[in-house]
Design a protein that fits this description.
2 copies of one chain form a homodimer. Chain A is built from 14 helices and 23 strands. Chain A is of the alpha+beta class. Chains A, B: Belongs to the class-II aminoacyl-tRNA synthetase family. ProS type 3 subfamily.
């Protein structure tokens, strides 16, 4: 079946393709207040699956969920100097409540370090109360002047972790553990999005942190996207809010802290990593609809078989939807599921039925073949695992083929400006080179150690900088 | 073991007992902005279980989750006259964003009917798009002058459902279905909170609704709490936002709508329904910690047995926590779990171990007995089901014993003022009587039909009013 060109091709205009896909796959709409968004059911279903997979990994670290207020007294923000400098330009401010002007304006949380510390300082008394490991699923508001759906929105959904520890080393190890075992594992094994795991330069750190770890992924156009970050906060907020504990030695000590977050931006990353000219391709392990079983025609035998097959696939552990909207042309429905990137489509028509087969269309490889109906429940889970692996391989291959080893500032600028990433010794760039990259709309995405691992020391000899244009 | 009186007794000062329990069981703290709250991990764990149980019931109706923006242009609120009148006094208003005064102030959503309809009017084109069944898990802000944790907070968490249907009858049936199969079922089978299911009088309806269904429960002090509501919105918002569809006959028709919500207030209801002078009693089906296995002493054999038993109880399908904080006195830990209302406590000490037994303390009946360690995994699930049923029976018995049939306005005032509920013919009260009740701080909680069912018509002869003081 020939397909109508439903999307602007990626090669013609990548940003337009992205916007087209999000609209036509019914992932999200722009909200009425500038930069806000409406996440539609299909898009929200992706977020629910991300939440479920992240939540289990977060809880496995011992962290517990809690909820802190949306509204933060404006004065809290100012207590940590770097923090307020970083966030002041993005704040939304509530000045009136209950029909009256407030005595002190409240900001809508842009992040919760300040209000969390206000309570940590009450809850933490002794070393027995440590570590204190808290996570929150919430909305935050950061005013955006150049919004783009999912990537930069004035309101977004996220999880933010906040922890307090007795020692620097413990906090450092916990930030690294989240980076590796929660975020890294989730990207690799669920999102199928390849990344480099590195350390931010001081210039790119979170406002108030002493160290920021990041996962950076290459999007379909070669640009970088910061996927998630995990911060060591040192004792900055502990000092600002006097969060102290009684040590085993009987002394009062400030706690050492971490914070870490992942957002609905990951839905944008999913689109820009796995999308193609026909739409999204959702990795099977993530998909809230893994298989759609389509009735090609309004025919009793077909409809009965479609429902029976759906039940058998569910019994095989798959997340299945039935599409029996036979008053909508079959071609339009097929295009719709392709746009939405459902991993497998099983099409059942009267002719198939007579032969005991169905047509199986796998979204990731783009294959289409007849399969025996009875064999599907046993075969499909394995196929989906293959397709999950394929998506990760493709994502990895893109980064590897479009990353160039560079020896100089000029080479790095050239490689990164040509739509790829540059790997260049940090000693060649330095902070001065980093500023000059900024003038060319390029950034150091992160630093890697010589062996490719996350550097414990940002200035260690042999550190390599990843330079790219970024979202 | 004699217990220290950790809480103000309920009989001495019910509001103080409530506040004490919430603080000491570590459910929540007051937030810094007036009326806001911090939900602590143990309290949030209850909310997560409520969300999980509700979400599965909501999805079973065919509704899908989505997310609408927090910030709503102020002008949206004014489009539906009753709606703005109801909510204007409670709004929090954002006047500044990104360092500038906004051209149009945005309100922090107090509820989302207006912004939802703005999008429904785009998404709904034809009868094929109906019914449109959406649910959202979110935070909302309604400025509170007399806040009380969980019961009335300036920010609370909730789910809000919004649906659009082709006909009045369909919308009406859907609102009733949510009321019965989602909310009623959840309260009965998970929260173990008894209720009457009725219809609000016009005076007590949601601002913008043509009919509001409610579940009203009796708290430990005899007052009523509105647990959840489900509204028929008629075509009020559809007209205000021009939400129309092309019918099968080719005509343009306004949709018929419902909305329905349940909030973190249910945590307050849980406390005031099942709490006793020793703390909370969490119904086993709700509990995120159903069983805590306590190591009485720091002893290797004890600790090994505690962990092994915990694993066996988990294998039996229970949600289990180990308490091996042996550097905290045992008595203090036991009191803490009692305060938190964990349904079952299994205490393992060296003496028990020698006898192959443990001490089982069941929170709901308050029983304490030795049990054979090996028998526990088989016995405990059944015990917990018994305790779940006990809590519901106690809740029902309270309402039944403290509800008085009354024949006149005066009798109703007397019964409801004495700390119970009055059942009085609606024809005896009428709207004028309802106003006079208000002067005595009493309200008509809802109307019931003569046979106790939800009245289809608020003015049907035989309708009975439930009159009570309410939270």
């Amino acid at each position: 079946m020939a397909k109508a060109p439903v999307l602007t091709p990626r090669g013609a205009d990548f940003p337009r393709w992205y916007q087209d896909l999000i609209t036509k796959a019914e992932l999200a709409d722009n909200g009425p207040v500038r930069g806000t968004m409406v996440i539609r059911p299909y898009g929200y279903g992706l977020w629910e699956r991300m939440q479920a997979e992240m939540d289990v990994r977060i809880k496995a670290t011992g962290a517990q969920n809690a909820y802190f207020p949306l509204l933060i007294p404006q004065s809290y923000l100012t207590r940590e100097a770097d923090h307020v400098e970083g966030f002041a330009p993005e704040l939304a401010v509530v000045t009136h409540g209950g029909g009256k002007e407030l005595e002190e304006p409240a900001v809508v949380r842009p992040t919760s370090e300040t209000i969390v510390n206000e309570y940590f300082s009450k809850w933490v008394q002794s070393y027995r109360d440590l570590p204190l490991l808290i996570n929150q699923w919430a909305n935050v508001v950061r005013w955006e002047l150049r919004p783009r759906l999912f990537l930069r929105t004035s309101e977004f959904l996220w999880q933010e972790g906040h922890t307090a520890h007795a020692t620097y080393e413990e906090a450092r190890e916990f930030a690294a553990r989240i980076h590796r075992d929660v975020y890294g594992d989730f990207l690799t094994n669920v999102l199928a999005v390849d990344f480099v795991a590195g350390r931010k330069t001081p210039r790119e750190r979170f406002a108030g942190a002493i160290n920021t770890l990041t996962l950076e992924s290459m999007m379909g156009d070669g640009k970088a996207l910061q996927m998630v970050t995990s911060h060591e906060l040192g004792q900055n907020f502990a000092r600002a809010f006097d969060t102290r504990y009684l040590s085993k030695d009987g002394t009062q000590e400030h706690v050492w802290q971490t914070s870490w977050g992942s957002t609905t931006r990951m839905i944008g990353a999913l689109v820009m990593t796995h999308g193609d000219d026909d739409g999204l391709r959702v990795p099977p392990r993530l998909a809230h609809v893994q298989v759609v079983v389509l009735a090609v025609k309004d025919d009793d035998a077909v409809l009965a078989k479609v429902r029976e097959l759906a039940e058998r696939l569910r019994a095989a552990g798959l997340r299945v939807r039935v599409d029996d909207r036979t008053d909508t042309p079959f071609g339009r429905r097929a295009v719709d599921w392709e746009l939405k990137g459902v991993p497998a489509r099983v099409e059942v028509g009267p002719r198939d039925l007579a032969q005991g087969t169905a047509t199986l269309v796998r979204r990731a490889p783009g294959s289409k073949e007849p399969v025996a109906l009875d064999a599907l429940p046993a075969l499909l889970p394995g196929y989906l695992e293959d397709d999950q692996a394929l998506l990760l391989r493709q994502s990895r291959a893109r980064r590897e083929s479009r990353t160039v080893d560079c020896a100089s500032f000029e080479e790095a600028v050239e490689a990164a400006s040509a739509g790829g990433w540059a790997r260049v010794p940090w000693s060649v760039l330095g902070e001065e080179g980093e500023v000059r990259l900024g003038e060319r709309a390029l950034t150091v995405r992160c630093l890697l150690a010589e062996d490719g691992s996350v550097p414990g020391d940002g200035d260690a000899p042999g550190n390599v900088a990843i330079v790219a244009r970024a979202y």
